[in-house]
Design a protein that fits this description.
The protein has 8 helices and 8 strands. The protein is an alpha+beta fold and about 200 residues long. The chain has one domain: 2-Layer Sandwich (Alpha-Beta Plaits).
Length: about 200
């Protein structure tokens, strides 16, 4: 059966610090913390985006072209998601009554977002829906980058240049970086520190 190629925005929300958090804490308590964080992310993103699936420490979603009015609208969604994430994490940490390592390590977790514009095919196999295509591969590769290494940020938003251009967005507020991936080549990226944006919302 022929499947139609669609265009839209691919979004990956990824919990920073997940690997070390799970490795160094009690698995049953870690599961409760991560599950609560993922539910918060899904609830906020699900208002505008279609959630595709959970990927361990990340939520993968998309929205067809034309259903996002601007870069500002996307940033507002991500700001609100990050704010609720931080507030939920802080509440969980401050109200924890057990002395487990997982509860104590909640502040080590953060949240980053990746947004790319491209083509995809909605694939349905054995009742399971997924997306496929080179741009789908790219959005996942973007999670492996040099942002933290170059800036020290653990919570940030990363747009591809292609995404900002399609949104007709001003690139000046962003820091430009380039990433290179095997088979995909050089990718122009634009980043913002979510901590700064969060502090701005809290004032």
């Amino acid at each position: 059966m022929e499947r139609k190629t669609q265009s839209g925005y691919l979004v990956l929300a990824d919990i920073s610090g997940y690997t070390s958090f799970v490795a160094q804490t009690e698995i049953d308590h870690a599961d409760v913390v991560i599950s609560a964080m993922l539910e918060t992310i899904i609830e906020k993103l699900g208002g505008m985006l279609t959630i595709v699936k959970l990927e361990g420490d990340a939520v993968f979603a998309y929205v067809p072209e034309g259903k996002v009015s601007s870069c500002e609208a996307m940033l507002e969604l991500l700001d609100n998601t990050y704010r609720i994430y931080r507030e939920s994490a802080n509440t969980m940490y401050e109200t924890a009554t057990c002395p487990c390592k997982a509860c104590k390590a909640i502040p080590t977790l953060d949240l980053k977002f990746f947004i790319h514009y491209g083509e995809y095919v909605v694939q349905k196999v054995a009742g399971i829906i997924d997306l496929m295509g080179n741009d789908v591969t790219l959005i996942h590769r973007l999670a492996k980058n040099h942002v933290t290494e170059s800036t020290g940020w653990n919570g940030y938003v990363l747009f591809t240049g292609k995404c900002l251009e399609n949104m007709k967005a001003d690139k000046k507020p962003f820091i430009q970086q380039a990433e290179t991936y095997e088979h995909l080549g050089n990718v122009e990226t634009y980043i913002m520190n979510m901590h700064d944006r969060y502090e701005g919302m809290s004032q």
